[in-house]
Write a structure and sequence with these properties.
Number of strands: 0
CATH superfamily: Metal-sensitive repressor, helix protomer
Helix content: 55-70%
Number of helices: 4
Order of helices and strands: HHHH
Number of domains: 1
Radius of gyration: 18 Å
CATH architecture: Up-down Bundle
Largest sheet: none
Distance between the termini: 37 Å
Bound molecules: copper (II) ion
Strand content: under 5%
Structural class: mainly alpha
Shape: elongated
């Protein structure tokens, strides 16, 4: 793993684990349901951020290495399958924001050959 991403993921997981423990305590103490739900949503958002870090690492390492070696297709398929089970990893909820609105670029569906 790229050290920066590894440290980022580890830090975020540690925070999420601590947060989850406090939610568990809230359930044990029979705290107000909506308050528990809000805290659970926050834990889920933290885990989604870890997913995004892992995705960045995977694209930066495994996928780009495979593409450079001419063997990217299986990893792209594997990633698309994994993303079906990783709702919210794309910030807009399942669509690719880069293709829709690339910084300083043109969406690839707007490009004519
Ligand atoms: Cu990878």
């Amino acid at each position: 793993m790229i050290p920066q991403y590894q440290q980022d993921a580890a830090r975020r997981l540690k925070v999420a684990a601590g947060h989850l423990k406090s939610v568990q305590r809230m359930v044990d103490e029979e705290r107000y349901c909506v308050d528990v739900m809000k805290q659970l949503a926050a834990v889920q958002a933290s885990l989604t951020q870890v997913q995004q870090v892992m995705l960045k690492n995977h694209l930066s390492t495994c996928v780009s290495d495979a593409i450079r070696a001419g063997n990217g297709a299986p990893l792209i398929e594997e990633l698309l399958t994994a993303l079906k089970y990783s709702q919210g990893v794309w910030p807009t909820g399942g669509t690719d924001p880069i293709c829709q609105n690339p910084p300083g670029g043109v969406p690839h569906d707007a490009v004519t050959p």
